[in-house]
Fold these 2 entries.
Entry 1:
Amino acid sequence: MESKLLGRTRNPEEKLGIYKKAISAQAVSREGLAQDGGVATALLVFALESGMIDCAIVTDKDDEWRTVSRVVTTADEIRAAAGTKYTINNSVNSLAEALNMGFEKIGFVGTPCQIQGLRKVQLLEEPYQIGQEKIALLVGLFCMENFDYDLLMNGLVKGRFGLDPKNVARFEIKKGMFRVIDKQGKVDEVKLEETDQYNFKGCGPCFDFASELADISVGSVGSGDGWSTVLTRTDKGEKLYSDALAAGVLQEKAVSEKGLALAGKLAGNKAARFEAKSVEMNVKNISR
Ligand SMILES: Cc1cc2nc3c(=O)[nH]c(=O)nc-3n(C[C@H](O)[C@H](O)[C@H](O)COP(=O)(O)OP(=O)(O)OC[C@H]3O[C@@H](n4cnc5c(N)ncnc54)[C@H](O)[C@@H]3O)c2cc1C
């Protein structure tokens, strides 16, 4: 897939996958809801308004932080879905919904696993005609792991912090801590390694931290508060980013070497975790 999409396979030292440009960026007008620099939202809004896409598949939430997939067609709807929900979502299924609704240039934002799934469908050489050519843009997020809704809410949010999910304003991962901020501004936090018990089990066999098959990847690590780390990968992703920059939708500054190295280290850790899991599973299979 990497060769088909990007013309070559990566070198072992390219821990974040193949990219053209790495930069810290920020949406010029950010809604309060954005998780970091608001770049994911700004790129989708710009893609919609410039005609690159005719709809976007986003992950919104209900009032108890359950993820809700939406096929949306307005900037306001894209903005309403800003912010990270740290629970798994099946928004890939919304591709079928978007196709059934007749959209022809579909934009999608999501986690590395979701991007992999959609890119795989798009690059299939099988003669299936399911509308894969209508996937017009894949905006990928960085992701170390995701959580199971019931485990996270019952175990941590309600169980340990005594919070009603309805009263949570924001979840974030910062400096090794998983933080829950309520609507009164109170912060409850726990070391990230103590959250393993709430992980979504399917995340175990995942090796992709930086959405390596996206047109453009956006993450938090590597950039300061209120900024996003952006990796442009395909010509399409590069053009979208530079057009948004030229239009004054985004502003940028250099990403520090230290920041990029940290992102690369996390990506390497995720790949190593995958290797370890694979060995563990093989050993189990052999001993069976
Ligand atoms: C589960 C998860 C884990 C992450 N882990 C890391 C990490 O370890 N390190 C790191 O640097 N960054 C991580 N990120 C990315 C980070 O939280 C931000 O999403 C990213 O920096 C973009 O910020 P932004 O302000 O540009 O996005 P915004 O403008 O706020 O837009 C965020 C977009 O993310 C989408 N989204 C929100 N939740 C989900 C979800 N559960 N599934 C799919 N799409 C979703 C929304 O549709 C929205 O369009 C993670 C994101 C997710 C969803």
Entry 2:
Amino acid sequence: MPAGKDRIIVIGGGIQGCATAYFLAKRGQDVTLLEKDHIGRHASGVNAGGVRRLGRDPVEIPLSLASMDIWQSLQGHIGDHADAFHPCFYLKVALDEDGQALGVDRINALLKAGFKHEIWLEDWEVKRRLPHLSCPTYGGILVEGDGWALPWRIVQGFASAAVKHGSRLVEGCRVVGIERGRDGWQLHTTKGLLEAAQVVNCAGAWAAGLSALAGDAAFPLSPYAPMLAVTDSRPGILPAVIGVLGQTLSLKQLHSGQFVIGGGIRARANLETSRGEIDIPALAASMDLATTLFTAITSARIIRCWSGIEGYMPDGLPVIGRGSQPGLVHGFGFSAHGFQLGPAVGEALADLVMGQQPRISLAPFSPSRFETT
Ligand SMILES: Cc1cc2nc3c(=O)[nH]c(=O)nc-3n(C[C@H](O)[C@H](O)[C@H](O)COP(=O)(O)OP(=O)(O)OC[C@H]3O[C@@H](n4cnc5c(N)ncnc54)[C@H](O)[C@@H]3O)c2cc1C
């Protein structure tokens, strides 16, 4: 690889890194993406594929809405890979009065803040939309047009689009040292020394380590391994992605008829080995909830469980913004809900690198919000 003083290096081949490389390359920038394993190997390639605006922290909603704009025009960005996105509706049901109160309060708060994309459904409307539901509900929150995607293919789509626009992409290349020189960065990698004018830290659960290597802030990022299970194929009963208010569940049925269950419940993760554990009893709680909702799932056989490594911030919000060192930009800490945000985050990080104003305020995600004075 030639040395490049104007080069931008993106660390991390997940959805944030690939989308960032794509938006930078599309704008004619000299960009190289480094990935220690392979593209989509970690959270971005193995997640539940939930593409949801529903249930976002209110400060995250503008970013999520902006990302949805990109999801809705995905074909123009990643071509045929866009066929991996399946818009439907996303419904979080209330199973008791507490869940109902949570949902109604949320809708009222969102309306007050001017957000109308989440709407409240009464029990009969929930039943009409989910005729195979096996239990009574106390209503639920609906978002039309959210959906699910095959995550691996979407990440590959952004990576391919980045390459198509001239980005270099180096897999099996781990960044092991970052030094600030007089006029740029020197990156020590397992494939040699690289120079760059700017570095984008999209290293997922490993990003706090990269920040420390670069002499930037010590971020309170904790790694965990959210878990998922998939069943064998069953007749289609589920036209939507389902969650439960006040509880942790993501449930969908793929076009193959397989149910994908889990998402929020997490096991331990090891950053050294890049491996996540599976906590079967904890994952079983998601199964129980899924079968309470749809008894038809009881007859399905679980054929595989897995987990992916994700970085969590104490406030559940990502870190998106410039670091304290010149020429260093961070985008990490997505706390198990960063897949849907990926496209807009990539666009915003590209803006920051190029000294432009992102179209969405990134103030809630400021890297300096954990600094103590
Ligand atoms: C099981 C599971 C279910 C989920 N479900 C959903 C969902 O339904 N909807 C949703 O919106 N979100 C979901 N998420 C969260 C979502 O997957 C993540 O927030 C998102 O993928 C994070 O993307 P990323 O690019 O920041 O991280 P990653 O995908 O982890 O990418 C970071 C990359 O950086 C690389 N890297 C790290 N260190 C180095 C280094 N030193 N040198 C080079 N490369 C390095 C890593 O190998 C990794 O590939 C889920 C996550 C999991 C694990």
